[in-house]
Structures are given as structure tokens and as C-alpha cells.
Amino acid sequence: MRRGGPSVLGIVLAGGEGKRLMPLTSDRAKPAVVFGGTYRLVDFVLSNLVNGDILRICVLTQYKSHSLDRHITTTWRMSSLLGNYVTPVPAQQRLGPRWYLGSADAILQSLNLVHDEQPDHIAVFGADHVYRMDPRQMLRQHIDSGAGVTVAGIRVPRAESPSFGVITPGADGRTVEGFLEKPADPPGLPDDPDRIFASMGNYIFTTKALVEALYEDARNEDSAHDMGGSILPMLTERGEAQLYDFGDNHVPGETARDQGYWRDVGTLDAYYDAHMDLIAERPAFNLYNRDWPIYTHSAQLSPARFGAGGFAGESIISAGCLIRGQVTRSVLSPGVVVEEGAVVQGSVLHDHVRVGRGAVVRGAILDKYVDVPPGATIGVNPQRDRELYSVSKNGVVALGKGQRVS
After folding, report:
1. In whole angstroms, how far apart are CA 390 and each of 207, 272, 284, 310?
2. To which H or E segment does residue 44 belong?
3. The whole model's pTM is what?
4. What is the DSSP string of 364-376?
5. Average pLDDT over residues 53-61
6. Residue 191: CATH number of its domain
7. Residue 284 domain-assigned?
8. Which of 16, 92, 102, 3 has its CA nearest to residue 56?
9. How many structural domains is the chain composed of?
10. How far is CA 55 from the centre of its chain?
11. Domain hosting residue 262, numbered range
12. Are 86 and 198 contained in the same domain?
């Protein structure tokens, strides 16, 4: 935070394997997956923290972290003159020859970062969600309430509860009376029985409360050593947990349409649907809000170019793309080439994908360096696609980095 305000250390949990996003995570950590053409998923949480004046941030990494580490070190360079930084922190095995046992254990093994900074508060945020949020508003409520931890919650349909940690608020609407990890049939909210408060994976702790809870959790051999499954229930039982309603958060430049937008893109279908949100006539999530920008690395590439027969509609076309064919309702990352006669519909193409002459790509996600041969089809024959490629529950065809197209 700015000089004179409370000191806050940001800790971003970015060690997740992301199995449900395979094959996009076969070569990289989930927070390093490309999103929206030019961004990485980790850019969204880092942009929110930095825009909110939390300028000392440690990103805890573990699983296939090279791509993520490189992106952070080359993109997120803060002012060392002012003591600000964003730094990746790999698993250091400070407590013995073992990897992280869970998200709580990851912070426990990295407490040297806390001891070095001596912050008043610690913002522990997840690394793989798409949203805008001003963390200062959550911090203000946290300080005013005197809570040991404040957890951000968002209202979602009760039917989606098996995918989230579910927060049960007390009569005052703030005190957390219960915290259930992915329950099958939780009670609905008093004012909206068909909805529940889902945890967004964003927490602000007083340093004292977090450190004490981590040490106590470490002594429990039966614990899963997880922030949502272990630490939050512990502090809830003590009456130290408060809910922050994400619906009350506002960022500069937001519209009525994208206020409160938050997506967990942990599955291929969710990842695909979030991209379709970007290219709607009235986007559900606006990448072009200059008052609360999402930062990322921009490669030195020439502008996108369209050949004589090239066309793109309802699409995002990044720099370095060459479009000679037809592109509709798609998101293209830098360096994508769509040759003459090729058709790309409702698809997400990552860096340097090439779609050959006369090929058809429909309802697909193609990772970096996929080369679609001339005349080939993806997303046209569902039975054939399921034999050759990964296909989601909703029929989205996904090819991994450099995967050969048959």
C-alpha cells in the first residue's frame, strides 16, 4: 500500500496443476495458460493487486513453473527504488525434502517472506480467475471489522456448490458461521434460497491470525493443509472470519454489464465460454477498460494484416496475425496465420497456430504451434474428433502445444 497506510504483503497461490484444463496444462502451470489472446491467467490477479496499490507480491509456484516464472520476471518489473516487487517463489523445501502438501503448507513453507516484510496484513489471492476487483475496498472492510480473516464471496446458483467452497453468513450478513468445501447440497441464502456464497479464493488476513493458524494446522497430521479446507474452517469456528460480498466491489471504468464479473476457468468448457464472453457484441467482460487495465507482456510484432480475401467478424485478432481466410467469433493470439480458403469459427487459437489452405476449425481450442494442414478439419466430425483429440463435456475440441493434426 501507499506510504502512510497499512502495510500489506500479497501472496498469490500459483502452484496448481490444473488437471481439468488438460491438454492446455500439459506443458505449463494453470496460471500460465494464455487467455484473451495476449494475457496469461496470472495477469488478472496481479493487475488487480497492483491497481489496488498492493505492490509487494510473492507468487508461489510449483507445478511446471518455467513458463510462469519467465512471464512474471520479464513482465512484472516494479520500481526497486521504492522497494516494490512481484517475484516468483518456487517450492524451496525449507521444512524438509518435500513439496507443498497443500495451499496452506505452501504459505507455511514460505513464511520467511512474511518475516522479512513484517506486514500488518497479508492478501492471499488465487492465480487463475478472470475478473476485476479493487482489493482496497475489501481491505477497508477487513480492518474496520477487526476480523482475523476476510474471505471474498460471490453469489452463484446453489446447483454449482460442488465446485466451490461455500460460505454460510450469519444473521448480520458478515460473520462467517460456516465454511464447507464443495458440498453437495448446502442451504441457500436467506434472501435468495436458490443461491449460495461461493468463495473466490481471495482472503485478507491479519498477519498474526494467519501465522498462528498455519502453525496450528501444521501440527494436525489429519489436516489437508489447504486454505479453504483447513485454515478457513478453523478461523470460522473461532468466530474470526468475515465475508466480503464481491457484489459490493466497484472498479473505475466498469459498466453495469461487467460489474461483478468473475469466472473460474478451471475446465475446458469454462475457459471456452469465458472467451465467448469477450467477443459478444456487448462483452460480459471488457478488456478495454483503461481506468483499470489488465497488464501483460506485449511482444515486438507487426500489426495484424488481412489479405485480399481475409475477413474477421466478432473476433479478437492480436498483433502479428495474417488473415487470408475467414474468421468469425474467435480469439486469435499473436502470430496466428489463417491461409486462403480456411475457415475458423467459434475458436480460440494460441500463439503461432497455422490453419492451412481450405482447412476448417470450428468450436476448438488450439494451443501454441499447432499446424492444421491444408484441407484438414477440426470440430466438424464429433466422432472422429473424440478418437483423435481431447473433447470437453460440451463438445469443445482441444489440442495441446504443438500437437499433430491427423
Report:
1. 44, 14, 27, 29
2. helix 42-51
3. 0.94
4. EEE-TT-EE-TT-
5. 95
6. 3.90.550.10
7. no
8. 3
9. 2
10. 19
11. 8-269
12. yes
- Whether 324 and 199 share a structural domain: no
Q: What is the mean pLDDT of the chain?
A: 92
Per-residue pLDDT reduced to its tens digit, 60-69: 998 888 889 9
> Is the pLDDT assigned to residue 226 strictly greater than 90?
no
For the chain, the first-to-last Cα distance in angstroms comes to 53
Name the grid cell of 173: 450478513
Statement to judge: residues 70 and 198 lie in one domain: yes
- CA dist 221 and 230 (Å) reads 12
Per-residue pLDDT reduced to its tens digit, 167-204: 999 888 899 998 888 888 888 888 889 999 999 999 99
Rounded Cα distance, 70 and 80, in Å = 19
pLDDT given for residue 81 in this prediction: 84
Residue among 57, 62, 49, 46 nearest 99 (CA)? 62
- CB 16, CB 103: distance < 8 Å: no
Q: Which amino acid is at 114?
A: V
Determine what percent of the chain is predicted with pLDDT higher than 70. 97
If asked whether residues 65 and 172 sit together in one domain, one would say: yes
**AA letter at 106:** A
Q: Residue 56: which of 103, 143, 145, 116 has the closest Cα? A: 116
Give the residue carrying C-alpha cell 524451496: 92
Sheet holding 390-391, edge to edge: 316-317, 331-332, 348-349, 364-366, 397-399, 390-391
Residue 317 falls within a domain, yes or no? yes
One domain for residues 264 and 306: no
The DSSP result for 149-209, as a single string, is EEEEEEEEEGGGGGGSEEEEE-TTSSBEEEEEES-SS---BTTBTTEEEEEEEEEEEEHHH
Question: Strands across the sheet with 371-372, in order?
Answer: 305-306, 322-323, 337-338, 354-355, 371-372
